Structures are given as structure tokens and as C-alpha cells.
Amino acid sequence: MTSLTHITAAAVLAEKKSAEVTDWGARIGWVVGLLILIALVWWLMRQGWKWRGALQSGLPEPAALPADPGTPLLSLTGRYHGSTTAGQWLDRIVAHGLGVRSRVELTLTGAGVSVARPGARDFLIPRSALREARLDKGIAGKVLAEGGLLVLTWEHGDTLIDSGFRADAAAGHAEWVTTLNALIDTTEGAR
What we know:
InterPro entries: PH_bac
Number of strands: 9
Protein name: Membrane protein
Keywords: Membrane, Transmembrane, Transmembrane helix
Number of domains: 2
Transmembrane segments: 28-45
Order of helices and strands: HHEEEEEEEEEH
Domain PH: 60-180
């Protein structure tokens, strides 16, 4: 009887198959559901960006770079981190491409500050529009160490705007602040 039990047990074991490990239908359903959720979130963020741009449509287009800006007084390369309403470091301005982060080449001339951005719209901050230059730690979703961001406050239309820049060599920020604030003081004295 023992040998018959062994033979029967061996036959039963040989016929058994392992259970399916993956339920492909459920897995595909979860992946499709997750992709739909990601697409919905992306679409909502895009709609929010467009809505914010529509709310800021009254903001005039920034000045274009002049053909001959004059002799460069200072220049730097780095990152443009965006623009916000002055004093409201989370209120990003997206109208006219001012909310697009990009590489930047800043050049200070007698005309003002030229903001050249590859892949994004270039613009000029006219000398007469400059109000303040300072070092700060954050602007619209970008927070750095204290003094790690060069922030230029300028008047555009009826709106005061803060634009944030981070130089490749942050040691040059202090020179920009000193030079720009001296330039702003002489411009205000002439008004």
C-alpha cells in the first residue's frame, strides 16, 4: 500500500502546474489607469498655466533687445528662474514668456539690462524701469541658499516685477547689485 501511495502522490505532483503568478488583465488595467491619471494632471496644469496667462494679458509685451545696446558694463551667464509680482515671490508671471525658465546671458549697458535666453523670448529691462537689485533666496518655486539669487525689481506698465537670476559663478552677484543700485540712484536723481 505504501508503494501505491508513493506512485499516486508522484502522479498527482507531476500533473500539478504552478499557479499563474501575474494577472495580466489587472496589471494592464492599473497601468492604463495610471497613464490616464498622469495625462489628466498634466492637462490640468497646462490649463492652469494658460488661465494664469489669460489673467495677466493686460501686461504689455516686454521691450525687445535693441540692435545696438551700447558698451557692456557687466555681463553674466547663468539661469533665468522666472518673474513674479514684486514682493509676492510665489505669484509667477507667465504672460509673454516671462515664466519660462531657461539659460540666460545678462548684459548691463547704458540702455538697461539685456536678457538673452536661448529657446525663449529675449527682452530688455530698460534702465529707466529698473527700481532695485538685491540678493535673495527664492522666487516662484526655486529656493537657494541665502543670497544665492540675483533679483531685479523693475516697472513694466503699471506692475512692479521681480525677475530672478542665478549666475554660473554666484560670486559675481554682489558686483551686479552694487553697480545696478548705483545706476538706479543716478537715474532717479536725473528724474
